[in-house]
Design goal:
Blueprint (H helix, E strand, L loop, with lengths): L2 E11 L1 E6 L6 E8 L5 E9 L4 E2 L6 E2 L1 E4 L6 E7 L15 E9 L1 E7 L4 E5 L5 E5 L6 E5 L4 E14 L1
Antiparallel strand pairs: 1-9, 1-14, 2-11, 3-4, 3-10, 5-6, 7-8, 8-9, 11-12, 13-14
Length: about 160
């Protein structure tokens, strides 16, 4: 089964350990391309690591089971939740992996971070929750640390591994 690594980069200031709030209950949003007919699916598809769906004509389960709108071929995606990596201040400005997935029948072409991320203040340890990255940036003030914290210029890419 083909494996993919989802990578991201951002310029972060004053925060570290940026990650989804829940390891198992985060809605990962992807754009997909059918591996059989190569047609892209233009709408965002949500994959949740906490959901398991039975595959047709199989005893297996996957986090996503979907048919291509064009050729009707079935495809699956399974998130490797054990590969989830937080984005740290040391990685600022550099691409780093966030998660890996296995995909059969579809190839992920885009990932878009959205809401419900968490992070900590670098020096203060302040917990920041409900971080929304749907606009590819976020800023707040760290009362305990006495400084502003921000995430700017979020970019993503997907690498076949």
């Amino acid at each position: 089964m083909p494996k993919f690594e989802i990578q991201w980069k951002a310029d972060v200031e004053g925060i570290t350990n940026l990650r989804p709030a829940s390891k198992t209950d985060y809605d990962w949003r992807f754009k997909l391309k059918c591996s059989k007919c190569n047609e892209p699916n233009e709408s965002w598809v949500v994959v949740n690591g906490g959901e398991e769906v039975e595959q047709s004509n199989s005893r297996g389960v996957a986090n996503l089971v979907m048919k291509c709108k064009f050729c009707k071929a079935e495809g699956t995606i399974n998130l490797d939740l054990d590969s989830l990596n937080p984005y740290t201040i040391e990685k600022s400005g550099k691409f780093a992996p966030i998660i890996r997935l296995e995909s059969r029948g579809f190839e992920p072409t885009e990932w878009a971070p959205a809401e419900d991320f968490v992070a900590e203040g670098v020096e203060s340890g302040t917990k920041f929750e409900g971080i929304d990255l749907s606009e590819n940036e976020w800023a707040e003030y760290d009362e305990k640390g006495g400084n502003s914290v921000e995430i700017l210029g979020v970019e993503t890419k997907i690498k076949k591994i």
